[in-house]
Design brief:
The relative contact order is 0.08. This protein has a five-stranded mixed β-sheet with strand order 3-2-1-4-5. Strands 6-7 form a two-stranded antiparallel sheet. The two termini are 29 Å apart. Helix 8 packs across helix 9, helix 11 crosses helix 12 and helix 11 packs across helix 13. The protein is globular, with a radius of gyration of 27 Å. Helices cover 56% and strands 11% of the residues. The longest helix is centred in the middle third of the chain and has 38 residues. A hairpin with a 3-residue loop joins strand 1 and strand 2.
Length: 351
């Protein structure tokens, strides 16, 4: 194992904040060369780049940035554009802070030490921009729209249940586009009470909002499919892999090289087997860590294949006769799908 300290000339530890960043430039032994506070803007980035050029003892420089996809995203982009290698630094744990205290300067120094002590082949690389970032934005928007639609649907059904027999029948039916259009276009009775007028106005508002949400989600899905097909052709042709699960796989995978191998991708997705043996019982269990959004996408693929794929059903029957529990079979299926996704992404995105 080669430590990062053996292959660099200097490390820059950066503790990022909304308005400013605390920076420490240190040599390969972890000895501070200088510290500074820079603004979270172009002028601050230029000041840091000038200091790197002037003060670092060699060209092999690594920046260990805490929050490289949050407050430090602008700085990470500027450093990458200048040819400085950027790695992601996790926030210091309580055990690492013990006996050292807490300040921005201390956090910057801990970022330096964390980088120097890491394996050169296993450093955390920030996720990519470009199409991958476009997919992430669309997935976040879809999650927000889905949560909002669910809340609006529940509220609309509650209002209908409090109405007359016609409204109660509508509440028990599926809220299709035709049903929503009919609810939005209903006319108020001539002698309606104030309560009825208010209820009908709210029903109309919610019906129109749900109709618009249906169109927005459809457009969102089409955008996800178009981007996924551009950057990972063939991924959505895999059985059970739709545009949403495929987009999440691309977002988590990010770019070739971020996961050093297929086992690392399985660990990232929380599908790598965790030993859970005791005595004469030899077994593994599901991993409850990793990227839970990616794990959920893989879980949905498993459910789709379990319902509709004859090959998957035959596998489940065979493993059941071998004495495997449903949870253990699900773990095996998730691991297989993670391997399939990684190989497809690695082949298509590298090409």
């Amino acid at each position: 194992m080669t430590m990062l300290a053996e292959v660099v000339d200097a490390v820059i530890g950066i503790d990022t904040h909304r308005d400013s960043h605390e920076v420490e430039i240190a040599d390969a032994a972890g000895r501070p060369i200088t510290t500074m506070r820079i603004g979270n803007d172009g002028a601050g980035f230029a000041r840091l780049l000038a200091a790197i050029t002037e003060l670092t003892p060699g060209p092999r420089v690594v920046a260990s940035v805490e929050g490289s996809r949050s407050y430090g995203v602008g700085l990470a982009r500027a450093l990458t554009a200048a040819g400085v290698r950027v790695i992601e630094c996790e926030q210091p744990s309580r055990s690492r802070r013990r006996g050292k205290g807490k300040s921005d300067a201390i956090d910057a120094h801990l970022a330096v030490l964390a980088a120097l002590r890491s394996d050169a082949d296993r450093v955390a690389v920030p996720r990519a921009d470009g199409d991958r970032e476009a997919l992430r934005i669309l997935l976040v928007a879809r999650e927000e729209m889905t949560v909002m639609r669910t809340a609006q649907t529940n509220r609309l059904r509650a209002l209908l249940l409090a109405g007359d027999d016609t409204d109660r029948r509508a509440a028990r039916r599926a809220l299709t586009q035709k049903t929503l259009a009919a609810l939005a276009g209903r006319e108020l009775p001539a002698h309606a009470t104030r309560e009825q007028a208010v209820r009908q106005a709210e029903i109309r508002r919610l019906a129109l909002a749900l109709g618009q949400a249906w169109h927005d989600l459809k457009d969102n899905r089409a955008q996800l499919l178009a981007i996924v097909d551009d950057i990972a052709p063939g991924l959505t042709s895999r059985y059970g892999v739709g545009p949403i699960s495929a987009a999440q796989a691309v977002v988590s995978y990010s770019h070739p090289g971020r996961c050093r191998n297929e086992a690392a991708f399985a660990a990232l997705s929380g599908t790598n087997p965790i030993p859970a043996s005791s005595g004469k019982t030899i077994r593994h269990r599901l991993n409850r860590g990793g990227d839970r959004a990616l794990n959920r996408a893989i879980h949905m693929i498993v459910l789709t294949r379990t319902r509709n794929c004859a090959r998957t059903r035959a596998y489940i029957d065979r493993r059941t006769t071998e004495g495997k529990t449903p949870r253990e079979i699900q773990r095996c299926l998730k691991r297989y799908i993670a391997r399939e996704l990684y190989r497809t992404l690695n082949a298509t995105m590298t090409a």
